[in-house]
Amino acid sequence: MAKTGDRAQVAQIASSSQSWRAAFLSSNCTPQPRLETDLGVTYEPPDFVGLILLAGEDDVMYIIQGHTPECTHEWEWERTGSYPVHPAADWLEVPVRGGSPSKSHPPAHPTYILKSFQWGHSAVMPLHPLNLPKPGQPEHSQGSNSNSITRHPTPCLCRPNPPTPKLPKPILQQRFELQIHQILTMGDHESSKLDHENHLLLDQPLLQLPVELLRKNLRSARFEVEKDGSFVKETLKKTATDSVNGRISQQDVLKTLDSMITRVKGVKRKLTAFSEEENRLHRHEEARVKHLTELYGMYSVDDVKYEGWSRTRLDRLLTDYLLRQGYVNSARALAKERGIELLVDVDIFEQMNRIRQCLLSGSVQEALAWCTAGDTKKELRKMGSNLEFMLRYQQYIELVRKSVHTQPSEALAHARKHLWPYRETYPKEVFHACGLLSMLPEHAARIEPYRELYSPARWQMLADLFTTTHHSLLSLPSIPLLHIALSSGLSALKTPACHSIHPNSAAAPSHHTSLSLATSVCPICSTELNELARNVPHALHSKSHVEPDLLLLPNGRAYGKARLEEYAKKAGLPDGMVKDLRTGEVYNVQLLKKVYIS
Amino acid sequence: MSLLELQKELKKFNQASKLTAAVQDVDQLIEFLVNARDEVASANDPHTTSLTLTKLQNPVSAQLDAINSDLGKVHKSQNAFHKALSRSLKETKGTLPTDHDPMASQTALINRAIAMHLLREGQFGVASTFIGEAQPQSETSPSPEETRRPPSITISRPDTPPDAMITDADIPSDLTAFQSQALQEKFAGMYSILTSLKQRDLYPAIGWARENSTELEARGSNLEFELCKLQFIWLFKGPQVNGLPATEKNGVEGALKYGQENFKRFQDRHLREIQKLSCAIVFSPNLADSPYCHIFDISLAFEEVASSFTREFCSLLGLSAESPLYVAVTAGALALPNLVKYTSINRAKNTEWTTQNELAFETPLPKSMLYHSIFVCPVSRGQTTDANPPIILPCGHVLARESLQKLAKGIRYKCPYCPSEGVVKDAKEIIL
């Protein structure tokens, strides 16, 4: 079915979460692929054959099947364990384990490492039938079919080994099948899968805000049109009647017409501004939907593209946080540097922060202007917000404070106009407002409600009230998204070891990367987050997660066998000696003890 | 409905009528008015004026209606899109847990984490803007209250709390300033080395690795050798490839010289590789056909070396290679659905998820995000902690200490997993 030639066949394999493109590739390619094992044996085509799996659109390649004609041990590719493949690396190491691996009976056989698997950058592997001839079968069955990939849709291809020892070498004794399915193991598949809908929980406000702003924009436009439209209509009607009845002079008609034209021109100016705003918001919304739908092109957390996407998300959350904290310049700089201007709302927060700052420095004018601009007033009333009342109340308090030794006529007028009408909605406040007149600031210090009213802390309260009102008006989350993401993430990552009293027991990666033995510091243990994570709960685990083949050193520390061996090699120790990865103590292998973790 | 379908809605929405239609209609309205004015002005007699004004009323009100209907159309399309949006977000179950914010009191620490993140990402410009903006803020935010508070109140308050407040706020912000200066220099150094690596200049990196060779060796890293090896190969390739001047310090001869000078110190640890490299000299005319050709394929080696350099550099600073903030936020997004589910169930019970020591629900993360060994005691099903460490029995089975104490009768115990029995004091603490 598959022919030696170009990419002869592309099979679509739907594994549990991924769709894979598998391609059988041609053998007459350069450079030739080769497989070199630890035992000093090198396989080259046609002895070594393999099948390449192309994963995703970026064509990161993983081999899933390979056969060599000769093998001194009965090998089978380990089914679990991770095979880290650096996307940029042109080689990979795959642990091969003898015997049949299963979880309950860890194999006693040693682990071999297949080394320097070389495939060249042209990403080509020889095309060979996957059903290699069984021992004793005639050669011609090679090339019969290459269908086994579809028969084994998931990369779980362990087959029983044929009885081997009777057969002379170098006859094909045995086959072994490689399977690398991503950087992950089978068991890990579930947790690295992306659940798109739920993954976008944090990003809902991103889409909602432009829509809210668009609606607000339109409402403001309507408000303007209504206001000036009815003015024009009414004036026109009145002028026309007056003119018919001859009650108005020619000059005045012209004047009224001129004023109408100015009005309508004003409407046009405003509408044009609204229209520009509308276009800008449309661009924002479009960019955001595009950004979020990019996620649907990724299926796993380990997708190379996911990292980029997730980084953009971090930048978005950071910008959001900076804006909410009032660090507008930083937010602007960050958004510009990362090119995410369309994904963040600097302007709206900048306006908010300006008003907030004014409140903090003791001025209500700007906040009042915001409350009464356009149709905000109506919306606030619909929300049942007390912001405007509280602002007026503060104005009143300031007037009283100012007129301590004079007649409080200004304060009284203000109260009559702005506070008295609300005596039913806010009876306590209005009552206190009346009492405040008799209470000098220096006397009020001892009397509870009045001390609070004269307190400068009210400005902070007003600023916070304004912020909350502003956020709920635009249906923005009340706390920075970064806080939500962090508190959830810190807990999920945190382990009891992160704040352990033994500093050394920290920072042991339970997954072992073959590229480097060196441990990577855990993000919670890293200085940046350690203090921050101190008071959050740690994650709940119901299963142990330790390195495979743990060995106990006499000093009470346990490490995975593979890691110990490799470290010993890198440290240049003689055979039969191992070195503690953290303390550097050297021990004889004989002293090591196997650890059983159930 | 997923976001993919929302895209179609968005397209419709983008093509739907916008405010521009209303602007055009307003233009027309202006035209009517201007024309009428001209007419009135030119005729200049009361009869024409009243006639024009009367005639003007209908078109003006019609035009106003048209504008309103334009706005109505925009409103309609906005509503349609809004509905589509809420429908597409409906599949995301639950609302964000905003009731309780454990991070709210930690602004200084979060700011510090952000400053360090920006520095390690090499965004020095943004970082300095941020530190500049965050610094006075964190110092002044308590102080305006102090200054604005009338003197009478300060007297009535005990003296200690304001003092404590100031120091509390000052220490972290000072830390930011102090650390950022040192950190910025460190990271600036790292980025300059990385830039040279990008330009295929290995010497700064080799210099750094040599300076820190003891620490690197202690970590089991062979970065220094890898760098030297790459430098050897790079020289070996000769002027055509590396573009360095064709002196005796370049090419095979230069490589040999470089090797003689530098490989000595690695002999006991990397003898085999050094042998390979030196044997390759024999094959220098036809390297491609030699058994060593794959060693000399270095097309991706520079990126590889650069990433392991970054990792080692950060590790020596006690920092993780990936930005912790990035990892934490990504993990947060992955764990959030479970958190949301849990909080929505428990909202009725009015318990806060953050008050416990351990989360009450599992948050599955991919393996690449597990940084520590996790041991769950097979008897108690709980994770081991400092207070309750894992204990290895002489038979090799591991339990939590408390579980063993519960299992033991007096000083003797029986292993729950195999027939062996023993004395409790033979069980040893184990560090996983």
Question: Main attributes?
Answer:
heterodimer, A: 598 residues, alpha+beta, 5-stranded antiparallel beta sheet, 4-stranded antiparallel beta sheet, 15 strands, 42% helix, 11% strand, elongated, disordered N terminus, B: 432 residues, mainly alpha, two-stranded antiparallel ribbon, 17 helices, zinc ion binding (chain B)
Strand numbers in spatial order across the main sheet of chain B: 3-2-6
| Percent range of helical residues of chain B | 55-70%
Oligomer: heterodimer
- Mean pLDDT of chain B equals 77
Question: Span from first to last CA of chain B?
Answer: 46 Å
As a percent range, the share of helical residues of chain A equals: 40-55%
What features would you describe in this structure?
The complex is a heterodimer of chains A (598) and B (432). Chain A has helices at residues 148-151, 189-192, 196-199, 204-244, 250-293, 304-325, 328-338, 346-360, 365-372, 376-383, 387-402, 409-419, 427-436, 441-444, 448-454, 457-473, 481-493, 527-530, 561-570; strands at 9-14, 19-24, 34-37, 42-43, 49-55, 60-67, 75-77, 94-98, 111-118, 538-540, 550-552, 558-560, 577-579, 586-588, 593-594. By secondary structure, chain A is of the alpha+beta class. In chain A, the strands form four sheets. A five-stranded antiparallel sheet of chain A has the order 4-3-9-8-7, with no helix packed on it. The two termini of chain A are 47 Å apart. Chain B has 432 residues and is mainly alpha-helical. In chain B, strands 3-2-6 form a three-stranded antiparallel sheet. In chain B, strands 4-5 form a two-stranded antiparallel ribbon. In chain B, helix 5 runs antiparallel to helix 8 (160-198). The longest helix of chain B is centred in the N-terminal third of the chain and has 45 residues, at 46-90. The chains are: A alpha+beta (598), B mainly alpha (432).
